[in-house]
Structure formats: C-alpha cells, structure tokens
Amino acid sequence: MSLLKAKSSRTREKRLDTLNAWQGNVSAAVTEFSDGEPVKRIRTFSQSTQDDLLYALRLLAALRNSVTVIHAARGCVAAGIFHQVTKGNGRWIVTNLDDRDTIMGADLKLRKAVKDVYLRYKPEVIFIVSSPIVAINNDDIQSVVEELHEELELDIVPIYVTGFASHHAVTGYDTTLHALLKYLAGKRGANNKNNSVNLLSVAEHPDDRREAERILTVLGLELNILPDEASPGIFRHAAAARYTLSLDQDTGNYLGITLRDEYGVPYAEASRPIGIGATGRWLAVAGKALGLDEVVVKLFHEQESERVQKALGDFNLNGVRVYLGLSSATSFSVLGLVEELGGEVIGITVSRLDQLHKERLDDLSLTYPTLQIHVADGQPFEEANIIKRLSPDLYLGDSAHLGQIGRLGIPVVSLEETPVLGYNGVLALARRFSAALHNRTFGAALARTPLPYKESWFRRSPNWHIKKEVK
Amino acid sequence: MAHHIEGSRNSCALHGALQVIEAIEGVVPVIHSTAGCGVQHYFGVNRLNAGADRFGGPPVSNSNISEKHVVFGGSSRLREQLKNTVKIVEGDLYFIVTGCSTEMVGDDIPAMTKEGRDQDFQVIYANTPGFRGDVHQGYQLAVKALIEQLPSLGKGEQSPIEGLVNIWGIVPHQDPFWAGNLEEIGRLLEGIGLKPNLLFGYGQGLSAWNRVPKAALNVVVSVWGDAPALLLEERYGTPVLKLEGLPVGSAAGRFLQTVGERLNLDVTRTENFINGEEKRLNTLLASLADTYYRAGFQREFDLIGESAQVVGISDFLAGTLGLIPRTLIITDNPPEYTREALLTRLSGLVEGNGTEVFFSEDLAEITDLVRSSAVGLVLGSALEKPAAVELGIPFLQISFPLSEQIVLSRGYAGYRGAATLLEDFGSAILSKGYNSHVSQESPLHTASESALYGS
To answer: Which residue among A56, A202, A328, B405 is the one 20 to 30 A from B222 at the CA level?
Structure first.
C-alpha cells in the first residue's frame, strides 16, 4: 500500500525502533541495536519535553503563504506565538476548544475558523493541526478538510499530531511532512521530471540553509529547498526532481524516503555537514551521486578549507574536554568537529537513538568504544548528574534547559540559534567556543544559584529512573 | 461558545497556574499531562518575558503521559511521578496541575493528592485543563487551591498581623512587569507604615502564603484578584480594597490615601510620604520638559494591554503627561459586569476627546483597529509590532508578549514606575519618531498635524 494512503506516518518507535531513554557506552549501544529490536525503556520520573505538536508548529512556522489553524484548547498555540514574535514566522489561529467542545465535538467551530481565515488572508494553503483533545474525542477533521477543499477550492492540509502517541517529538516532523506530500505533492508521475535537486532543510537555521545553498549553487546545481521557507508549490516540483540531498538525516529522513519510495526520487542518508572534513565528505558523496566533476568539487573544498583554516588561525580546542547535549545527528557530527579542532568529547546526550544511527555507532565503536551515551530529550536532571561527575571544560547544547547546565559553573555554548553547517558554520561555532572559553565569569556567577535538585539525587546513578518497560 | 482566536496572547489555564507556581519560592509544579504542555508554556510564556524563570528551563516535573495512559488512565503514572519528584526536586510544597488529556481521561487527582499527603508529602492540587479557560482562570484556580489547601497542611494561622496587606490580581508574566510592579507597591505600603505581603517574586515563599489569612486588608489591583479577595473575605472576614487599575504616578498617592483611611493610619505620616514621592516625580517631569516639547511628546496614542494596565498607564499618560488616548484595547477578557465601568472610566480620560475603547484578544481585530487609528505612538505587545512598523510610528512593548525587551525588575507601578514609563516611552519616541529621516515622511506627522482639537 502506498505510504501516503495512511492518515499519518507511523511513529518513530514503530518505524525505527527509536529509544528515548537509555544510558551506556558506544559498544553497548551497538549491541542494543544489533540483537533485533532494542528493549524499550521508560522513565519513572520525567521532565517536560518537546512533543509532536510542538515540532509540527516549528516546521509549519517556516512555510510561506500559509495560515495554520490549531484545533485545540487555547494553550496549544503558545509556541506558535513564540515563532511569530521572535522570528516573524507563521500566522496562528486556535479554535479555542472549551469544556463543552471536549464532550460534543467542535467540527462546526473548525469549519468556521477555516472559512474566516480564508476570507481574511486568502492564503495558498491552510494547515489544520490536531491536538490531544481532538485525538481523544476523535473530532472529525477529515470531513471538514474534504468539504472545504471543494467549497473554497483551496488546499487544506490536516496534520494529525496527538501529543501522546509517540515519545519522540520528531514524529511531529514526520506527521507534518507526510501531510505536506500527501496533499501538496500530487500523484506520482503527475509532474514531468525536472532537473532540480531537492535540498531537505527541516527547521534549520536560516544561515545554515543559505550556506548549503551557497555551496551547492556554486557547483552549478539547481535547487529545490524544502520545507523551510517553501511555498506550497514546491512540493509538486520536489516530487519530480532528480535527486534528494539532506542536511540532517534525523529530521529529513521521512521526507527523503517518501520522495524516494512514492515518487522515485533517489535519496541517500548522509551525516550532517558539520566541520571542514565532514562538509567535504558530504559534498563528495553528493557530487558523486549527482555526477558533478570530481575535480571541481575537490578544488572547491580545498579553497573553502583554506579560507576557513586561515580565518581560524591558531584557534584550537587542544586539551579541552567537551560534553555534547544535542539532537542526535547534530551530536554525532559536532563530535567530529570537536575532534577536528583538537578537543576531546567525553560524553554525549542525544535526544534519541535509532536504526538511523547504527552506522555511525559502528564507526564510533572502533575509535571510542567506551564513550558514554545518554539518550534523553529535555531531562536535565539526568544530564546535570552526569556532567557533575565528568566536569567537562565546555558544554555544547541546543536544548531549552541550558539555564540549568550553566549553574554547574561550566562554559556553555548554545547551538539553538547558532549556524553550524558547512564551512561558515565552522567559523560561527569557533567564535562562540573561543568566547566561552576565553572568559568564564558568567558560569562562575551562575554557579552561585543552586540547581533545583536535592543533593541526594546526585548520589544516585543518572539512569536510576530509566526502567525496562513492563508490557 | 468560545470563539476561535488569532494570535492568542492569553495562553491557557494550565499555563496561568504554572505562572503562579513558578513565582513562589519553594513551590514545585508537578504537571500531569502530555510532555509538551510544559514546553509550550516555556516557549510561549517564559521566553516571551525575558526568559525569567526560577528553574532555569522548562518545568522540572511532568508525567509526560503516553497513549497507554490515555487508554487505561494515568493515575498510577501520577502516583509514581509525584513520589519521585519529592525525592529529586528540592521544594517546600509540591503542586499538582493537570492538562486537557488527563482531565478528559478522568484521572482522580484529589485521590492521588490524598495518597501523597498520607505519606507526609506536602502536596496540593488544582484541575487546570486548557479547555477550562485562559491564563487568568489559571491564576485564579491556583491561588484558590493555595488559599483553600494550605491551611489543611497545618501551617496556616489566623491571628491577624497588624498592618499586613495582601496584594492580588497581578498575574506573574502575563503582566511582564509583575515583579517590579509588586515591589513598588510594596515599597509604597511600607512608606506609610504597613507590611506588604507581595506573595510572588523574590523572597516570597510559603511563609508569605501562610500569612495570607492574617492580613488586615486585601488589595485587588485587577479584576483577576476579585475571586481570591472574595474567598478570603468569606473565610476570614478580611476587608477588600479594589483599585481601578495599576496605580501609576499620582494614582499611587490616591491609593495610599485610601488605604490609610481604611486602616486608620496616621494621616500626617501618609501625607508626608506622598508629598515626598510627588515632589520627586514632579522634579523628574520638570527636567524632561525641554525634550517633551522639542520632540513633540504630546501626541495621540493607542494602548493595547490588560485591563489594569490600560487603566493605569493611560490614566498617567493622559492625566499627567497630556497625551491623547485614541484607541484603547483591553485584551484580558474582563467579566461582563466590569465592562461598563471600564468604558465610562476610559472614554472620559480627556474630556470631549472621543477615546474609543474595545475589548478583544483577536490579533486580526486588534491589527485592524491599530491600522485605522493612525496615531503618533502605539503601546502594546510584540504582536502589534508589525502594524506599528507598517504605519511607521513609534512603538513600545508594554504588554505580554514581549520580544525585544528584557524585564527583570523594572515596573510601571507607583511613582518609581511612572518615571520608568517616562524613560521607556520617551526613548521609543526619540529612537523611532524624532530626528530621523524616516520621520519626515512618516504618517505620524500627518496624523498629528491632521488631528485638530477644536473648541
């Protein structure tokens, strides 16, 4: 059956055996994923973390000429407001479900919201995002979509997130990308093949997208960048492109494989182009797949490397012990960059671990079999416990809880809004690393405010609350 | 039936409850809901309020319920989460709050709370699903839970403390200047010899909340303080003083006089204190005069914010600074019974001016109103910025959400707050509307020139 016939994508745990709670070294992780399906763990104590609804909002915020109607209680739009006022992205309407709606359903309300929004803004597309309430009371979004699509002659795309069906927020990207292809890309073969190359940029920093665009455009490629900053029309074009490149195998995976399996656009997983060497390798692999002149690609890489090396001067991370708390693919790639700069990664927290990371784990097991991996999304109590034991010289993270990590007194660099990709990413990161290590007074000041945890917690092992799930 | 809203700035009841809890030292929220509720709050509230947060990140305890709990119930998950929160997170009181999913499933929160208490955990609860209302309802639900359940934990005392005054109705974070506003109101009350009980912010923990029943007076700054004050009046007979809005500038003097009368304070002491504050503010006004005339501070303005803010700030701008209120938009959905008084009060700020007053939380509607009013200054939230930029007029963010200001301890209440407001709105005019080449052609000149106030 066609993947896109389904209402939604499968969850990450079902599709890729994704773990959200785990701790052990690299060798153990390799074993975990080679002996069939890994055993699922749960936490008996947990902290707030991202969910699929939040990731859907984040992705939709970057789409052009669109308006989003969130079919939910009023609070579910809060993160949308964050994207709107900090980045100028998105237009958000919440259906504001109340007590009565949770019992009686509220498809009339949804219908009215969609019509009002259409009349006011005449967008190219309207997204409808579901929510925990709607997932529980089973409000009929689908008939609203179908009827209003006819009536308004407008693309209306329902995105069936739930807030609870998956432990992995990244499932929200899959759900959203599934819906975007299903409703906006058309049927297979409906569009004539074109010569463009898809560049998957899923919730990337705008500078990162531009850096990738710069590199690939210099090499003469005609790009189709999606979904970030994409207009709805791009999805049709993408379905008829000649190849798909990805900037992040974790976030772009579902879009890449669906374009491949549904529309026949070739796609290969690749590590993120973070660091000079990794960018060169990413480019070489892409160049080969796209039939670019090997000599030209190599020359470009050498010129760019030289430029970056020159700008770096004698900056290095020699003797610096680094801890990484990043989303998975980013973490594994930043690890390479830290090495390249002469530093040592002494531990990592990744947001999830799954089949997509198997190859990278195999590689790592040759060089760092004992490196500690902690799998957690937004569980700073565990991270703080680990970091207290390791006392690294530098922490690199992209989570919302860096304010806690800072209280451990160590220099912190946030990658949440720092470009990391390509040659320019190396420079942007090096500048931040350099400043953080050059003057550490803010960390010392923060260390005077205690973490919110009891001393006894730090005497427990960090994985104390991670248990095998009893089914 | 609740209507859909564009760009809602009033988040939900759960978020309002979290805002209460996070502003009280030693109280730990235990969220029983889906994983994202706490992060929604962190992104959509804390981060749009200078990131001011006691814990250094999203909420520290959340049961993160999954499909299994939706199908089979999540009470046992909450039991486990509560037990472990008490073990891990430092706190004097653990406060269970719920989200939409667990309320729809029907988890028995009172029973779980009782179980916790039976194990000697200090724990209270409030049912706060987002479908029950907005941030203001959340504030009321959480405050009610504290007032009703703290005494049963055995620490509430009832013998009155002379001169103790509780302050209600300032919703932490929803008023971005909540901490500074409370501190200034506290400073003023201390100035006339009283003991303010601020309840939220730095140094405000359970001991402050245990003193609540002992107050001599409950001061209500916004309509959202009505419910707690009423509850305390019923339970402990504490008298209530309702303010028209945030007391800014001389309104603070009138506030102190009233408090003094109600509590039979020494009149001379009160008057002396007020005179001192007035004199200081008058000196500041006088030192600003040259810039005020030169840069044309006197102009029409739009103000978008919560009812207490709109009353307090527009009262000062119009009543002391001579500015002209054009369109005032109240965004916190005050109850119907308060609206007529607000309309009368606000439309009469400047006699014969025809100030228009609206109630709306819908961004589309608010944007239309701002666009059509063509004034010389807009004071509102980050959500109004695009409209102000489009019109090319000076703009100051004074209400939630904020995107380009850090507010840690500043406030607009009282006499000190009036001076801060002068600094902020004056800076907004100087940086965007005065002496810049843009201003030569900006609509602000045409607007201020075309508006003639005839005899």
So the answer is: B405
Q: How far is CA A106 from the centre of its chain?
A: 32
Testing the interface with B: which of A84, A164, A349, A456 to mutate, by most B Cβ within 10 A? Answer: A164
Instruction: Give CA angle at A90 (A85, A92), nearest 5°.
Output: 90
Which residues of chain B are within 8 Å of residue A130 when distances are taken between CB atoms? none
- C-alpha dihedral sign at B309, B310, B314, B315: negative
Residues of chain B in contact with residue A112, where contact means CB-CB under 8 angstroms, are 4
Cβ separation B34–A404 shorter than 8 A: no
Q: How many domains does the structure of chain B reveal?
A: 3
Q: Outline where DSSP puts E strands in A135-278.
A: 155-159, 197-201, 223-227, 243-246
User: A353 vs chain B: nearest CA distance in angstroms?
Assistant: 19
Cα–Cα dist A258/A272, whole Å: 20
Instruction: Residue B366: name the closest of B353, B385, B347, B350 by CA.
Output: B385
The answer to whether B337 touches B345, Cβ cutoff 8 Å, is no
Q: Which SS3 state, helix, strand or coil, does residue B380 take?
A: strand
Statement to judge: residues B300 and B438 lie in one domain: yes
CB pairs under 8 A between A and B: 251
| H-state helical runs in B161-205 | 178-191
Residue type, A448: R
CB contact under 8 A, B88 and A407: no
Model confidence over B67-101: pLDDT tens digits? 999 999 999 999 999 999 999 999 999 999 999 99
Residue B195: pLDDT over 70: yes
Pairing of strands B377-380, B300-305: parallel
CATH H-level superfamily of A313-468? Nitrogenase molybdenum iron protein domain (3.40.50.1980)
B433 pLDDT higher than 60? no
- My answer on whether B437 and B295 are in the same domain is yes
Comparing CA positions, the residue from A100, A29, A125 lying closest to residue A350 is A29
- Topology of the domain comprising A48-184: Rossmann fold (3.40.50)
Domain boundaries, chain A: 48-184, 197-296, 313-468
- Identify the closest residue of chain A to B135 by CA–CA distance: A75
Complex ipTM value: 0.96
Mean pLDDT, chain B, rounded, equals 93
- In eight-state DSSP terms, residue A38 is P
Assess whether the region A48-184 and the region A313-468 belong to the same CATH fold: yes
- Asked whether residue B25 carries a pLDDT value surpassing 60, the answer given is yes
Based on the domain organization, do B146 and B204 belong to the same domain?
A: no
- DSSP-derived letter for residue B223 is G
Residue-number span of the structural domain to which B142 is assigned = 13-153
Q: Which tens digit of pLDDT belongs to each residue from A308-317?
A: 999 999 999 9
- Fold classification of A197-296 is Rossmann fold (3.40.50)
Mean pLDDT of B414-440: 78
In Å, how far is A46's CA from the nearest CA of chain B? 6
B301: left (phi over 0), alpha (psi -120 to 50) or beta: beta
Per DSSP, A138 falls in state: T
